[in-house]
């Protein structure tokens, strides 16, 4: 391996694998905004995938031009079923952004090649089993080889991770939350539509849900979160949250498991993760940030202004849950995604107009104690803090923005980040300037209210 590294210095600051995909082409478009601009660490990009002609089409779409691409952009053939092609790509790149999914089918060879070559890795995965499996299989080698592997750097699960931390920051030193519920409200003047790639990942997740439980049972137990107050009750299936005027139903997304992994990693490393070569000043900043962070019970609900608005999500969940477990059912789901999700997912994905007209608001409703000592006296919670994160369409606008900002933080502040390892994004990016960067790029964080009862 050393020989490969010596022969091939890192030619590319960034490689986008799966650049020809529905999401991949939007990621390419976002990356080009930062290529060779003032103070950007992005000077060279490789667009990679199994079909160079399709990648060229993506590039043309992203640049809206028919001219020859800039010299700073290379197109590289890389197929996830050809390990040598991945080793070639990773050994020439500082960082790979993986947009090839479903990750449970295609992700592991990419992680393996990154870890082998000491290349950093980010992806837009929303599949908990894949993330936890990569942590179980590759963490130690990634630490050793100096490869930072971070999944869930898209809408899954950066708004949840950063939104959780933003809510916690509002509690002050004495107060502490017992639970934070996130309510995700999707809006559009047209239709809310997702591409088949995300739908297939969700269907396969349901089909294999037992494997995640098996994996967790097979792993050594990790630190327990110490959360003030009793475990909250489950509550109604459809819940009305009067302060934000929304109805919500549980969303089985990756967000709650990713936030929990960040909180567990924090419990095991109360000062956060030391940077590979950080200054004393940066180390102090990191310690101060994490000292103020607190664990709480966390869950996510999909929300709507009326119970009727939830029907589409409930029906899609029921069909995926019912048919996703058997192979004939899965074939039906994947053949007719639009029918089984009442138009939520389409084989050809959303139109440009549909993408541009959609937006999201994620509300974080925290309940807890004005003084943490009240929790042990079995007193009822007496404080509510509501914050929110807002942004454009989730899958193809917010996801590329978030992924690129994570990439830019990583390329700009590599010394302040761990040498290597497989981690959830919050514990790596929490103490960096990621939140400010997201704000500068159209994803807002604000405090809505603080109430005492
Ligand atoms: N976190 C989030 O919020 C978020 C948002 C959007 C998407 N996603 C996830 O991103 C993934 C992709 O979704 P999508 O809608 O973009 O799917 P898609 O349009 O089907 O794109 C899949 C990409 O994978 C490539 N690919 C497939 N097999 C390959 C192989 N053997 N070697 C190399 N590349 C291969 C495809 O290449 P070809 O073009 O050559 O077929 C294509 O570029 C899904 O898992 C989805 O869940 C997550």
Automatic annotation (TrEMBL):
Coiled coil: none
UniProt-recorded name of the protein: Saccharopine dehydrogenase NADP binding domain-containing protein
Cellular component GO terms held in the UniProt record: lipid droplet; mitochondrion; plasma membrane
Stored InterPro entries: NAD(P)-bd_dom_sf, Saccharopine_DH-like_oxidrdct, Sacchrp_dh_NADP-bd
Gene3D superfamilies: NAD(P)-binding Rossmann-like Domain
Domain (Saccharopine dehydrogenase NADP binding): residue spans on this chain: 15-150
GO biological process: glycolipid biosynthetic process
Record-linked SUPFAM superfamilies: NAD(P)-binding Rossmann-fold domains
Similarity comment: family membership: Belongs to the saccharopine dehydrogenase family.
A Pfam family that the UniProt record links to this protein: Sacchrp_dh_NADP
